[in-house]
Amino acid sequence: QLPLVESGGGLVQPGGSLNLSCTASGYRFDLYGVGWFRHSPGTEREAVACISSTGSTIDYVESVKGRFTIARDNANDAVYLQMNRLKPEDTGVYYCAATLWTATLTPSDYPSWGQGTQVTVSS
After folding, report:
1. What is the mean pLDDT of residues 86-108?
2. Phi first, then psi: what are they for 107, rounded to 5°?
3. Is the pLDDT of residue 62 over 90?
């Protein structure tokens, strides 16, 4: 299990931006594929984006394409999720997850999860 820590959540107005971070200090984070997922009350945990260990392969769920950008800085053991043009339906707890296998948009493919960071989009 990789000790993942998310940060950067908060309250933002519709149309605003947030940049989430996911870190795993002390571990070879560059070996892990990473996914971002979110969970809102009354819904299933859903995928947002994923990135391969090298950053060469990236995928997004359709609803965030063109608005969110996933990136990683392996020198600093971090993966980021830049979220622009936020909508109320983006509200939820955002989790990062890591796997030594291929990064996918399927939550069950990830054995390591962080505790989550709350994102609230509201006027």
Report:
1. 96
2. -55, -35
3. yes
